[in-house]
TrEMBL record:
<dbReference type="InterPro" id="IPR038727">
    <property type="entry name" value="NadR/Ttd14_AAA_dom"/>
</dbReference>
<keyword id="KW-0067">ATP-binding</keyword>
<keyword id="KW-0547">Nucleotide-binding</keyword>
<dbReference type="InterPro" id="IPR052735">
    <property type="entry name" value="NAD_biosynth-regulator"/>
</dbReference>
<dbReference type="InterPro" id="IPR027417">
    <property type="entry name" value="P-loop_NTPase"/>
</dbReference>
<protein>
    <submittedName>
        <fullName>ATP-binding protein</fullName>
    </submittedName>
</protein>
<dbReference type="Pfam" id="PF13521">
    <property type="entry name" value="AAA_28"/>
</dbReference>
<dbReference type="GO" id="GO:0005524">
    <property type="term" value="F:ATP binding"/>
</dbReference>
<feature type="domain" description="NadR/Ttd14 AAA">
    <location>
        <begin position="44"/>
        <end position="199"/>
    </location>
</feature>
Length: 210
């Protein structure tokens, strides 16, 4: 069973619910293989990496391409609501919110789900910023798994955002290497996504094909 095709389409409207975006489209399907599902079971794809690497854009693009859903990054909504200042204890709240949004989205009718970050982002940022990780975050990072992991490279230009904190290339390299170590230490396979614009999207799309 395969999910996905290339769409020649326009978007009618988007529906927002619990951080999950559904794109409804009028589309002409053009025959093209998508990525295969495991016996019809929901396949969760994680899009992750340091700040300003195009995670949200790619998650949205893939969801549109596969006529599916995506879960946005809860941290951005949390900080927009409560202000950019936060403490280490806020990271536990952000973790719970992210996992809740993913769990809610899993109840949908689609067989694939694209997740804009997971517990690993909170784990790595807590390590980087505070030098420690709470038991709750560490447990989630160690136990929660996705079917496919796309790690975004830091080859895109930095774009200023009031919620971003690590603009220097040296610091971005340090954080990126933390992601690589995180996945290697847990024997989690990942695909590195590089390039800009259409090349970045094509790289991600090709990584999902069987």
């Amino acid at each position: 069973m395969e999910q996905g095709a290339l769409f020649n389409c326009f978007t009618i409207f988007g529906l927002y619910n619990n951080g999950c975006f559904r794109l409804f489209q009028v589309a002409e399907r053009l025959s093209q293989p998508g990525f295969k599902l495991k016996g019809g079971i929901l396949k969760k794809v994680l899009i992750t990496g340091p700040e300003a690497t195009g995670k949200s854009k790619l998650a949205r693009q893939l969801a549109q391409h596969f006529d599916s859903d995506w879960v946005e990054e809860y941290a951005r909504t949390y900080l927009n609501k409560n202000g950019p200042g936060y403490s280490r204890s806020d990271l536990d709240h952000i973790l719970r919110g992210q996992l809740d949004w993913i769990q809610q989205a899993e109840k949908g009718q689609n067989e694939c789900l694209f997740c804009d970050t997971g517990p690993e982002v909170i784990y790595i940022w807590s390590k980087h910023k505070y030098g420690v990780v709470s038991n709750e975050i560490e447990r989630a990072a160690d136990e929660y798994r996705f079917d496919k992991v796309l790690l975004m490279n830091i080859d895109l230009p930095w774009e200023h955002d009031p919620l971003r904190e690590a603009p220097s290339l040296d610091e971005r390299r340090i954080i990126f290497n933390r992601y690589v170590s995180f996945f290697q230490e847990r024997n989690i396979d990942y695909t590195l996504i590089s390039g800009s614009g259409l090349d970045r999207f094509s790289s991600a799309l090709n990584s999902l094909k069987c």
